[in-house]
Fold these 2 entries.
Entry 1:
Amino acid sequence: MTEAVFTGPADVAARLEAAGYLSDPAIATITYLAERLGKPVLVEGPAGVGKTELAKAVATARGAQLLRLQCYEGVDEAKALYEWNYSKQLLRIQADRERTWDQTHDDIFGRDYLLERPLLRAITSDVPTVLLIDEVDKVDFEFEALLLEVLSDFQVTIPEMATVVATRRPFVVLTSNNTRELSEALKRRCLYLYLDYPDLEREKAIVAARVPEVPAQLADALVRVVRSLRSLELKKSPSIAETLDWARTLLELGYDSIDEGVAASTITVLLKHRTDVEKGLAHLAAPAPAPGSRSVPPPRR
Amino acid sequence: MSPTGAGGPLQDRVLALERALRAAGVPVAVSEGLDAMRAAAAVELIDREQLRQALAATMVKTETHRAAFSTLFDLYFPARLGLDPALPAGTADAEPPAPRDIADFLAELAARIHTGDADAVAHLAREAVGAYGGVPDRDGEVSYFAYRVFRDINLAGLLRRLLGEAPVRDALADRLRRDEFELALRRFREEVETEIRRRQVVQRGAEEVARRAVGPLPEDVDFFRVSADEQAVMRRSVRPLARKLATRLAAKRRRARDGRLDVRRTVRRSLSTGGVPMDPHLRARRASRPELVLLCDVSGSVAAFARFTLLFCHALQGQFSRVRSFAFIDAVDEVSGLFSDGDFSNALERLSVDADLVWLDGHSDYGHAFETFHARYLDAITPRTTVLVLGDARNNYRAANTWVLADLRRLGRRVYWLNPEPAAQWGSGDSIALDYAAVIDRMVECRNLRQLSDFVEELA
């Protein structure tokens, strides 16, 4: 079982904040539960809402080392679990020619010749560990099955050596951008946390924490504009990082309020596609259309 | 660890919620139910928000199911009644003796929205249900209905009033204020609905209300009845599906190791290990990317489906290296390049302007469309091509020209057809679905996202 560090969701929130991460009730509760129940957390959500940041902050908050497995299409055991160090083994074989094969065999399939990759390192580590499996939606189906085995038993079998069982269970965070539906089996084993863009108050607090020079009323106005843009159908909605970039840009240019002109001249900090920029500008500049029943959807049924 | 710390009533409630979720179509595995119990035992029950998060994280693993969960959670763990359903409801919030004047009420609601006081707005929503939402029935009991509330409180009118009262500034400020008001009114509406369900639970019990409280999940919504909110969900869900379809159709990509030995590089590499070829270099196998041809009916009769169809085309274009999309009504035209900028806002309108789809009268004519496809675009079909036809096969009693599809199947790899009509209606009236189904690999009913994902799943 993962050793307990947190005493409750409120404690999680406080520690994460000390680590520079502003959480919300969902994040705090689920992080706490992940530790209590010893389960991995699967974090899903759009790009740029702080999924990877969360894992880093949890590592800091628990005083643990962070091991990161960046997933990509075609990642395999050799990159994720372990690999034998062939060259070293070969040198060894050449070095002691007078010894019998049996002796050498026992020698070259030992720890010294093993290249540990993040998953195995997380299991064998004897210090507290947070294992971040980033962008797990990118991996192939076969690799997902391998992950299942590791995440449910926290053990790895190395045929030439032995089965390695975790002495300390790592705290596991998986992130996904939802480019592909993950298997039910993997989801079953995880606690599910959907991270959406932060609400107004939280994003304001993030701006205040990261760019403290921004005056409150400017912060308020800018997160409102960002929220308005996020309601659009865009290729790439502005991320939190882009909100912060925009805050710094406005500050640098010496604006203390936002009007149409300011927004138009700096919107490229938020939106990076030509079609998005056009849409965003049209949205912000559009005189409110004659209010009708269309904008407020009628009550269901 | 067992949930012994929690009392029986909590377990029963969690179980009841689990059952209701399953009844609503959310898949909750037994092990997830057990996790929910353990999670519920681990959090502070006093804090309803913590309990909500704990149960959601363990039982609901797909974001699109979250709305159904929230509704049901409110039914089984109502806000102020606590865990004990026996507690009388009236005590906490007794009705004011006489509902106040509606103009008075609206004035306060508008004022609260202007000041952005969310709690007060929520409180007013609950008051509105009590004051204006009740309909007494014969045996003296009062039932509450949302339509009664919104008959007195016209949200569109309220939005107009709010915008009118606000000081006039520049366009940007207008836009932001409008967002604000719309959000507040949406919250008000949700709060009213929640409150009505809460009152129904008190009168009829959670089970009874749960059965009707949750509509179909986003993946079960018929393509022909998609609301604006659901369209957004659909857009998000289609992309992962397209990706899955891409990997399924792709000839299983072998590991690089399976390629042929590259002697020159292996010898070069062996120098570092004293001339022993320890680490053979293998030529990477060229992954055979499948080619896809999409034929989409975009006529008026399947307009709602066509919107989805185009979305699917676009998502597939992002996944396959070689996708060619063709749209047709009674003539066919290539539309592969049309949506390359990813703008979908008025896809159908743009189609009718930019593509040449009408030959005679603008009514579906599959036969003629297929025939022109065969004459003009046959070069798109190679032995590696999978053809996907999307449409209802309602041909207005015109020639079927099934020979075209038979020919495509002979030349290409596979021909599939996704039909948005229930299978029972195939072949009825002017539908010639069965004629086409006979000459292609498979025709599948595809009325919602779930059926689409089943189709993708089976393609393995």
Entry 2:
Amino acid sequence: MTSWNRALKRWPTWVALVLVVVSFLAVGATRASGPSTPVERAEELEKRVACPTCSGESVYESRATASENIKDRIRLLVDEGQLTDDEIIAQLEVAYTARVLLVPKASGFDALVWVLPVAALVCALAGLGVTFRRWKREAAVDVDPTDDDRELVASALRSESEAPPEERDP
Amino acid sequence: MRGRRLAPFIAVAVALVIAGLFVILAGSKPSEDSAETNLMGKPAPTATGTLMDGASFDLSRRKGDWVVLNFFQSSCIPCQQEHPELQKFVAAQQAQPDGARFYTIAWADDRNAVESFFAKQGGGWPVVLDTKGSIAVAFGVSKVPETWIIDPEGNVRFRTIAEVTADFLGSQLERLREGGGS
């Protein structure tokens, strides 16, 4: 066994390795990932707002006049620095209605977008559970005869063996 | 057996959902009434700009009058088509002592193009140059033509996203003046 292998097998090495991994995970999980400049903040907001005249495009990607106007508005509000991101989005929503939101809200009627798939998944899983249980029960009936079944077969065999020879099946 | 007992309840639940959707759709307002906007019945957003003659425009200072805003672009065909109707409407309003104030909001358009259009087609009402689209964004306008009616208290009362006629606009304004809802 080499000295390198021996070192690997000592517990302090493993403890050190675990500490390094935990440190990296902690730093990665707590590191601020938001925008660091007003331009980045404006771009993040532009990616959350749908182009009102295009299909499935954000104003960040779109070059339509309405999108350019909205981008100007977002940049102005970001530069003023008085509103939070959600307040800026809410201001645009007042003017353009909820169609301007690329990600639907989790409240009111829009919440159905989030609730219905989860409800459908729960119903589907429940349905599968019920079906599998029924199949299992039916399979158990097919494979394992009950005591009544055994008794029925045994009595049939007994009555056949006790019957006179001429009444038996050939 | 159990499934057979559940079936009527599931059928009733599905029927209720369908009935609910039917009620919602049947109860929704027809589009020819007023276009959807979260601003309906609320104070009109801040709208400031420069008029084509160089004077300043501030919508909040027009309280006390009915105000009609028509969002426009000189290159937009429906805007060109409705222009004669707007001229008729403005003439009718100017003939009344308390007629509505009419403003064109030239959205993201070139000043020379707007001037040239009005010089050729006529229309002596004030034109606000919304070159950067700040008024359009405040009202949520993304296509033209659009026409909005603001009441004397400064609240939004009507929006239409279509070409209008003088009769249609006049009748909508009259209905609102008489206390009709949006």
